[in-house]
């Protein structure tokens, strides 16, 4: 699910105060949950003209448990530029912490557990009205003329913040290789296949570029 900016603002307004900075960081970087939950202060550069975030570790499931390890793939080990919007939230969450601590910690202290964040997330989306109509599977015996209820709604999942981040970059015409690198995709084919629908928004720009190229008299 790709959230519009207005929809994200609604969702954010329903997130508990102790999770707002974390949700903003996910939406504004496109990081996977496993990467953001493992982020240490040492991997942030928050001073200077170009703040940066380095993805060098992530939570991994091992033998029924979890442990810190290298990111998912080789390209997942990456460096992202940060917008000024995120500098203060990151500074706020790094205050008083050691270089190897976690930037974002659970309300009760310690590392965020995916289950704990899932409950915080579902509590937020259950009180909001952002969602997409979802048609249930049509029964095998149904005829084309039968009416099928579409009253159920698909709610955004936390990983949809990464998809939303990509769709916002596409809307602002960020080149696909830049989006691929930011999300840590191994292949640009993954980027194109996953975000084909938002990419359709660029059709008008593509047509305009072709018309300009083929017409020497165009401005």
Automatic annotation (TrEMBL):
GO terms for molecular function: DNA binding. Residues 129-159 are annotated as: Disordered. InterPro entries: DNA_brk_join_enz, Integrase-like_cat_sf, Integrase_catalytic, Tyrosine_recombinase_XerCD. Keywords: DNA recombination. PROSITE patterns: TYR_RECOMBINASE. It holds the Pfam family Phage_integrase. Residues 142-156 have a biased composition (Polar residues). SUPFAM superfamilies: DNA breaking-rejoining enzymes. It comes from the Bacteria. Residues 1-209 form the Tyr recombinase domain. Signal peptide: none annotated. One of its GO terms (biological process) is DNA recombination. This is Tyr recombinase domain-containing protein. The lineage of its organism: Bacteria, Bacillati, Actinomycetota, Actinomycetes, Kitasatosporales.
